[in-house]
Amino acid sequence: MSDPFTDPFTVLGGGDAPMHPRPDFARALKQQLLEATAMTTTRPSTVSNLFYFTLPAPDLERSKRFYTQILGWDVAGGSMGGHIASVTPAGGLSPGAGTDDRAAYFTVADVDEAAQRVVALGGTIEADVVSYESGRMVQCRDDQGTAFCLQEPAPGEYTDYAQNPKKASRHGDLFYFSLPVSDGDRGRVFYSALFGWEFGESGDQGGMHAENMITDGGIGAGRPGDHVEFWFQVDNVTLTIEQIESAGGSAEGPMDTPQGPVAACVDDQGVSFGIIQPA
C-alpha cells in the first residue's frame, strides 16, 4: 500500500506550479503595486493644467490658411509666426514639424524638480531645459514612451495666465486633449504622481478623464501612438466636415458620444486632429 502522507520536501523539489489568479484580483494587485512604487515620489502641491499646445505645420502658410478657414484661428505672432492669438487654451502652429509632432505643455512650479519626478517615475528627459520669454521648458516622455513637455511660466503675465486657466467656450477652442498610453493603470499612476491628476472610471474606449483639471483632458488607454491627441470645439460638426473636405482635408464621422458628435479629421497636409460639437 502506498504511503498516504506526502513528504513536504518533495513538493519543494517539484518545480513551480503555474498560478492563475482571478482577473479582478490580478488587476487590483497590479494597481496596488504600481501605486506603492509611486509613493516614493512626492506628488505636487498644485494640479498641472495645460499651458500651451502646438499642431505641426509642415508648410506654415498652408496651415494658416486651412485653420483660419476651418476653425477661425487668428494665426500671427511669436518668434516663428505660428502663435494663435484667438484660441483658449493658448496654442500655436509649429513650422516645419512632422505630421505627428503635436505637443502639449503642462504647467509646473519648478521645471527642474518636476523633471526629477519624471525620471523617478520611470520616464525620460529628452533634452536640456531651455528658456524662452514665456519661461523654462523641457521635453519628456512618460514610462510608456508618450511625449509631453513641462513648462515653468516666467514671472508676470505668463504666471498670471498659468494660474487662471480657462476652458474652451467657442468655435476653434481646444476642447479636449488625450495622452495615449498602452497600459491604463500605469498611466493613472504616472500622471497622478507627476501632475496631481485624479482620474474617474475608465470609459468605453479606455479613456480616463482627469477630473480635477480646469483645462479638460486625460489619458487614453490602449491607443497607438506616442503624441497627444487634440479635439477642437466647433459650432456645427456637419458643416465643419464639409468645410474640411472642401479645403482638401478629410474627416470620418460624425459619431455620437455623450459629450456630443465628434469626427476624426486630417488637414490638407496630413496632420490629424479631432472636432466636437459639445452637447
Q: Explain this structure to me?
A:
This protein has 279 residues and is α+β, with helices and mostly antiparallel strands. It has one domain (50-276): Roll (2,3-Dihydroxybiphenyl 1,2-Dioxygenase, domain 1). It has 7 helices and 15 strands. It has helices at 8-12, 23-38, 60-71, 111-120, 157-163, 184-195, 237-246, and strands at 50-57, 83-84, 91-95, 103-107, 124-125, 130-132, 135-141, 147-153, 174-181, 207-209, 217-221, 229-233, 250-255, 262-266, 272-276. Strands 1, 2, 3, 4, 5, 6, 7 and 8 form an 8-stranded mixed β-sheet that branches. Strand 14 and strand 15 (272-276) form a beta hairpin. Helix 2 (23-38) packs parallel to helix 6 (184-195). Residues 8-12 have low confidence and may be disordered.
Q: How many strands in all?
A: 15
Architecture in CATH?
A: Roll
Largest sheet: 8 strands, mixed
Here the CATH topology equals 2,3-Dihydroxybiphenyl 1,2-Dioxygenase, domain 1
Could you say which structural class the secondary elements and strand pairing correspond to? alpha+beta
Task: Report mean pLDDT, rounded to a whole number.
Answer: 87
N→C terminal distance: 77 Å
Shape: globular
Give the count of helical stretches.
Answer: 7
- The CATH class: Alpha Beta
Give the fraction of residues assigned to helices.
Answer: 25-40%
Q: Beta-sheet strand percentage?
A: 25-35%
Give me the Rg, rounded.
Answer: 23 Å
Fourth CATH level, the homologous superfamily: 2,3-Dihydroxybiphenyl 1,2-Dioxygenase, domain 1
What oligomeric state is this? Answer: single chain
Count of distinct structural domains? 1
Low-confidence stretches: 8-12
